[in-house]
Design a protein that fits this description.
With 369 residues, the chain is of the alpha/beta class. 34% of the residues lie in helices and 18% in strands. It has two domains: 22-76, DNA polymerase, domain 1 (Orthogonal Bundle); 81-358, Aldolase class I (TIM Barrel). Helix 1 (26-35) crosses helix 2 (41-52), helix 5 runs parallel beside helix 6 (189-200) and helix 9 packs across helix 10 (293-307). Its cofactor is [4Fe-4S] cluster.
Length: 369
């Protein structure tokens, strides 16, 4: 039997980068600016440059007196993330970026351009400690949590790339954020919540992206789901369920040994009740492992009982990972699975897989230099 994972919502700041503007809320920003001997209004002026104009280098903040820029850079803009490389596919509309943090830590984000939206998949940890065997990130283990600023700066960089026309399709605007990159977001909850505030608050406190366009995923940390519900945020909750029965889920999602399916779905119902938002259930369909007709029936039944009309199943054909013997289910099996879930009164669709050929799809991020 798999050893239950420890309950860790927030690891210490060990290995975190120095304080950055994006780590601070409005009150904290103003306090730092005052410590520097600058007028209070400079705090919002600097924040508008970062969140509104997407400028991260005080040397380019032309509305600051030149003599002040070095002091601001030292206090609020330490080196954070450096682009190692970009890899593109889908005619340039999917772009994976490998980042190196100041301590050498590697992480990845994926920018995807669609006809009706521009979505960024961001990482909240370097690696992941959830140990799901079909996920390259989980198999690599957890390096460390990312700081709030390291999470937020992935968003700033992508928004600037879109604005400047660096992604195929011409200039555009970042509209959607999904916490589905490297890591378990709810295991770094304090910093993820702070990042969500920066992402969704209007300038000068954030990028002004709608909370309804932000997805926070989890493998099922039930107490943390309830804590997220109590924050008053209205982001979309995505639960990576992958099978409706505890026997298999104990293996596919080891955290299930601590919080079994019933407890996860009870927490999801609490989230739906508190927020009024529909919960998304992620299900990676694996040939001969979790794609049986009876599992489709059981999934639909359990979700309908727990969440009624406030749930939607995203079926994800398994994305290949190095060394894995598992594979995606055949299309006829996939179609029958969808039909059976829908027959239980639960909406179910197959996710459009992007970035497979550049190892940028769900479960493939490994941040290899």
């Amino acid at each position: 039997m798999t050893t239950p994972l420890p309950l860790v919502f927030d690891a210490p700041r060990r290995g975190m980068p120095p304080r950055h503007l994006a780590d601070l809320d409005s009150r904290e920003r103003k306090a730092v600016v005052e410590e520097l001997g600058l007028p209070k209004f400079r705090a919002d002026q600097i924040a508008r440059q970062y969140y509104g104009r997407l400028v991260a280098d005080p040397g380019k903040m032309t509305d600051l007196p030149e003599a002040m820029r070095g002091k601001v850079a030292e206090a609020l803009f330490p080196p954070l993330l450096t682009e190692v490389r970009h890899v593109v596919c889908d005619d340039g509309t999917t772009r994976k970026t490998l980042w190196r943090a100041g301590d050498g830590t590697l992480l990845e984000s994926v920018l995807m351009r669609y006809a009706d939206r521009n979505t960024l998949c961001i990482s909240s940890q370097a690696g992941c400690g959830m140990a799901c065997p079909f996920c390259a990130t989980g198999q690599g283990g957890l390096n460390r949590n990312l700081s709030t600023a390291e999470i937020v700066d992935q968003v700033r960089a992508a928004a600037a790339a879109l604005r400047d026309g660096e992604v195929a399709g011409g200039p555009g605007r970042l509209s959607n954020i999904v916490f589905m990159g490297m890591g378990e977001p709810l295991a770094n909850m304090k910093r993820v919540l702070a990042a969500v505030q920066r992402i969704t608050s209007p300038s000068p406190d954030g990028f002004g992206i709608s909370q309804r366009n932000v997805v926070v995923s989890t493998v099922g940390l039930a107490p943390a789901i309830r804590k997220l519900a109590d924050t008053g945020l209205s982001v979309t909750l995505a639960v990576s369920l992958h099978t409706p029965d505890d026997e298999l889920r104990d293996t596919l999602v080891p955290v299930n040994n601590r919080w079994p399916v019933a407890e996860v779905l009870d927490a999801a119902r609490y989230y739906a009740d508190k927020t009024g938002r529909r919960v998304s259930v992620e299900y990676a369909l694996i040939r001969d492992i979790n794609d049986q007709p009876w599992r489709a029936d059981l999934l639909g039944k359990k979700l309908h009982q727990a969440l009624g009309s406030r749930v939607h199943v995203n079926l994800i054909p398994l994305n290949p990972t190095p060394g894995s013997e598992w594979d995606a289910s055949p299309k006829p099996v996939e179609r029958e699975f969808v039909r059976r879930v829908q027959a239980q009164g639960v909406p179910c669709t197959v996710r459009d897989t992007r970035g497979q050929e550049i190892a940028a799809a769900c479960g493939q991020l490994a941040a290899e230099a």
